[in-house]
């Protein structure tokens, strides 16, 4: 049960916050900047209003998840820190003497209260509203890109995950006391998951029995992490064959197993839209959704900046229809072709035919492909195969036994021709220099907010993680810009 009204905090110790939490503290600034009542309004129908015991206020639970994202800590560690860190208690709207929640409550909150809520769009909408209200967003351009997040288990078996985490814990313990090697049980020799779970429980029990060692921060973090996985092994390990995670490719030679977050960001580095997909999805296909979501937040857009992935024909047509400038280079295969310079044939403008390196001219041409589809049509030029058979330059050009010899040239569509002219303009070159900003934002999400690895399995968990991380970076950016403008 929750109350319709927020209770007033009556404590003789509240004045302590004015001393130990300065005005320039990030959490105090965040509390002053954001009216978190929207969380209560959104989650109210997930609670009973007139029956049962009083629940922890949903705003406080939401703020716990926000702190978890900002400081990249486990549930246990974030609750532990809120016991003694008064800036945390201030942010959580608690009196200094108030007790904290049980860490398991955060799991219940994520599963029961945040289910069936479009948290990602709601939190981005809120931050963009604040940025527009404070006149922080002044540009009318968005920068688009995608960043990958590896699945929590990274295609490892449940046993491999447990072995890795228990090894990290033992290593931290050995750095303090090498004699502990004699106290730990013998490692498992089978592939049975139950045996590895029992082994990990024994390791946890031994470390917890050593009062001096278990209190070291580096041991405590590893211990809590292993305990969290062992206690929730039904959720974390049996689900390690993540049904939603997919194999994606960063380059032709490197891949990852997990998810993609497609992001749109203003030139002031405020994220205005995000779409979270499985790892194999194409970047370019999400562009139209990112533009529409950005506009729904109230932002006016006239320019979209992205890399080559966003310059596909459908996106160029969409940009033209919506009077947008698409600052994205065409694929080099379209502008330059796929052949090396030495493999190209010469075009004879008088005969309107191509001539091969040996000086033989094509005998006829034909147009292949269909109009009105995404693939461009091609002009295919046919050469006299009898001449090719006896040509002194036939090596590497003529394949023995071939019945025909052709040379095809892709016909650029009107959209591609116009885009090619635009990408050679000074305006295009100037705007494309802004693209680096989103690379820095992706790096911030990954390295400061733990977004390089998923904190749970499944798309739903990724949406919650993404929503909290993006809300955090947006609010921090707004606070930074407000400081700079003072």
Summarize the structure in words.
The longest helix is centred in the last third of the chain and has 27 residues, at 459-485. Helix 4 (58-71) crosses helix 21 (459-485) and helix 9 packs parallel to helix 10 (193-209). The protein is built from 21 helices and eleven strands. The chain is of the alpha+beta class. It is 45% helix and 13% strand. Strands 1, 2, 3, 4, 5 and 6 form a six-stranded mixed β-sheet that branches. A three-stranded antiparallel β-sheet has the order 9-10-11. The chain has a two-stranded antiparallel sheet with strand order 7-8. Strand 5, helix 15 (313-321) and strand 6 (325-327) form a beta-alpha-beta unit. The two termini are 43 Å apart.
> What does the overall shape look like?
globular
Output the structural class: alpha+beta
Overall pLDDT level? 87
Give the distance, in angstroms, between the N- and C-terminal Cα atoms. 43 Å
Give the tally of β-strands: 11
| Low-confidence spans | none
Oligomer: single chain
**What share of the residues does DSSP label as strand, in percent?**
5-15%
The radius of gyration is: 30 Å
- Count helical runs: 21
């Amino acid at each position: 049960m929750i109350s319709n009204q927020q209770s007033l905090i009556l404590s003789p110790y509240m004045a302590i916050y004015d001393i130990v939490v300065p005005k320039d503290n990030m959490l105090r600034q965040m509390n002053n900047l954001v009216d978190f009542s929207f969380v209560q309004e959104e989650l109210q129908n997930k609670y009973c209003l007139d029956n049962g015991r009083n629940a922890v206020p949903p705003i406080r639970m939401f703020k716990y998840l926000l702190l978890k994202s900002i400081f990249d800590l486990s549930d246990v560690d974030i609750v532990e820190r809120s016991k003694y860190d008064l800036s945390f208690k201030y942010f959580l709207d608690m009196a200094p003497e108030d007790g904290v929640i049980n860490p398991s409550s955060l799991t219940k909150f994520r599963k029961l209260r945040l289910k069936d809520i479009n948290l990602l769009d709601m939190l981005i909408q809120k931050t963009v509203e604040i940025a527009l209200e404070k006149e922080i967003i002044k540009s009318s351009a968005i920068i688009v890109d995608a960043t990958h997040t590896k699945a929590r288990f990274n295609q490892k078996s449940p046993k491999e995950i447990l072995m890795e985490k228990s090894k990290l814990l033992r290593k931290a313990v050995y750095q303090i006391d090498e004699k502990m090697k004699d106290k730990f049980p013998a490692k498992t020799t089978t592939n049975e998951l139950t045996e590895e779970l029992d082994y990990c429980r024994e390791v946890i029990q031994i470390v917890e029995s050593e009062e001096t060692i278990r209190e070291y921060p580096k041991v405590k973090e590893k211990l809590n992490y292993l305990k969290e996985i062992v206690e929730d092994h039904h959720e974390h390990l049996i689900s390690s064959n993540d049904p939603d995670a997919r194999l994606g490719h960063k380059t032709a030679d490197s891949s990852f197993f997990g998810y993609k977050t497609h992001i749109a960001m203003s030139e002031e580095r405020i994220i205005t839209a995000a779409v979270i997909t499985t790892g194999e999805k194409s970047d370019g296909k999400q562009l139209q959704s990112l533009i529409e979501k950005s506009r729904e937040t109230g932002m006016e857009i006239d320019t979209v900046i992205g890399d080559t992935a966003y310059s596909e024909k459908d996106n160029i047509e969409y940009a033209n229809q919506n009077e947008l400038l698409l600052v994205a280079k065409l694929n080099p295969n379209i502008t330059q072709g796929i052949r090396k310079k030495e493999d190209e044939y010469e075009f004879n403008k008088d005969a309107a035919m191509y001539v091969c390196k040996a000086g033989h001219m094509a005998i006829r041409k034909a147009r292949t492909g269909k109009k009105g589809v995404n693939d461009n049509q091609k002009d295919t030029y046919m050469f006299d195969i009898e001449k090719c058979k006896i040509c002194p330059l036939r090596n590497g050009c003529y394949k023995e036994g071939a019945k025909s010899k052709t040379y095809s040239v892709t016909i650029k569509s009107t959209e591609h021709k116009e885009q090619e002219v635009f990408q050679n303009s000074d305006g295009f070159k100037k705007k494309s220099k802004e693209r680096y900003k989103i690379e820095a934002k992706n790096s911030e999400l990954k390295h400061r907010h733990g977004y390089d690895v998923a904190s749970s399995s499944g798309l739903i968990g990724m949406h919650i993680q993404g929503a909290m991380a993006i809300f955090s970076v947006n609010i921090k950016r707004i606070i930074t810009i407000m400081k700079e403008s003072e």
